[in-house]
Amino acid sequence: MESKTAVTALGALAHATRLEIFRLLVRAGAAGLSVGKIAEALAIEANGRLSFHLKELVAAGLAVARQEGRFIYYSTDYAAMNELLRYLTEDCCGGQPCGEAVDLCHPEICP
Predict the structure, then answer these.
(1) End-to-end alpha carbon distance in the chain
(2) Which SMART domains does the protein's record reference (predicted)?
């Protein structure tokens, strides 16, 4: 991963609402959630502000959107998430053990 890509992803997550949305999408799994379900889960209105935050996550490569009928569903791009986590931890402790390892989302569980 290039540092520019990491900065873009981290910048998207550097907002309380987007971070909360991203964490919600991670928990939702590959099926994702509709905009209405995201708004309901976060107790916010499904309006332009929510759409803005979702588009920022998509633009940063952390989420994907798909349309099914009249509804738009958003889900985590687990490959991008794992790539970001690897980038952030690839040189952890200079290669020396430094505590518990964090397992990345397994591809069979999080496609």
Answers:
(1) 19
(2) HTH_ARSR (SM00418)
